């Protein structure tokens, strides 16, 4: 089963959903999971004002309550130059998907931990290169690819693909068969709930006739 996971490295609910997705990958090896950075707030000039900090705090505490994922609430990434622009981290994911395609989920998880737990500014290209180096990618190789027009285009294509399929928030899982889009889940779900959903999909596939295809809120980050 091919499944698309629409996410964003700077979406807190996606960070909360990350352990769930990890368990799904481990326990359902027959799922061909395609990770797409759908563009939470690319190009945003949003600074972390006191009001926006309160907004983030509220959602981060909800994510922790639902998922158990930890946050560093000191937000060490905040600076006079920081903007909540999710394009650079999305582009970094595209780079790793080209250079080390089998390690894109691991890189996504490293970015999330760097941002939410370590307070690193993952809008910064050098910080992103350091994270990629943890997977063995030479910093200069990463940076050359990161600043290429090809990667900029590929990143925008991910954003466009997300919009074309009607994705309105992150995280979102869906399948695409015979031009028919089926939403698996929108927003955060526990592993127990996801297991029920995925098992149901596999049962439906097993009983389908051959050749017949399948016909920021409090749980997701809105586009």
From TrEMBL:
UniProt xrefs under Gene3D superfamilies: Glutaredoxin (3.40.30.10), putative protein disulfide isomerase domain (1.10.472.60)
Signal peptide positions on this chain: none
Superkingdom per UniProt: Bacteria
Database matches in Pfam families: Thioredoxin_5
Record-linked InterPro entries: Thioredoxin-like_sf (IPR036249)
PANTHER family assigned: DSBA FAMILY PROTEIN (PTHR13887:SF54), GLUTATHIONE S-TRANSFERASE KAPPA (PTHR13887)
Protein name: DSBA-like thioredoxin domain-containing protein
């Amino acid at each position: 089963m091919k499944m698309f996971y629409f996410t964003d490295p700077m979406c807190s609910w996606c960070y909360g959903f990350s352990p769930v997705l990890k368990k799904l990958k481990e326990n359902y090896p027959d799922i061909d999971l395609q990770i797409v950075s759908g563009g939470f707030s690319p190009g945003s000039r949003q600074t972390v004002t006191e009001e926006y900090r309160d907004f983030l705090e509220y959602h981060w505490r909800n994510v922790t309550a639902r998922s158990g994922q930890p946050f560093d609430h000191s937000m060490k990434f905040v600076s006079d130059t920081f903007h909540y622009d999710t394009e650079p981290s999305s582009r970094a994911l595209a780079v790793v998907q080209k250079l080390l395609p089998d390690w894109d989920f691991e890189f996504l998880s490293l970015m999330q931990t760097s941002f939410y737990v370590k307070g690193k500014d993952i809008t910064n290209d050098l910080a992103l290169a350091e994270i990629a180096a943890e997977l063995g990618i030479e910093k200069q190789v990463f940076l050359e690819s990161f600043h290429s027009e090809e990667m900029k285009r590929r990143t925008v294509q991910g954003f466009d693909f997300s919009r074309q399929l009607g994705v309105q928030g992150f995280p979102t899982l869906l399948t695409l068969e015979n031009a028919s889009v089926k939403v698996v889940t929108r927003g955060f779900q526990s592993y127990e709930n996801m297991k029920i959903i995925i098992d149901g999909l596999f049962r439906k596939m097993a009983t389908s006739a051959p050749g017949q295809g399948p016909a920021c809120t409090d749980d997701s980050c809105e586009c």
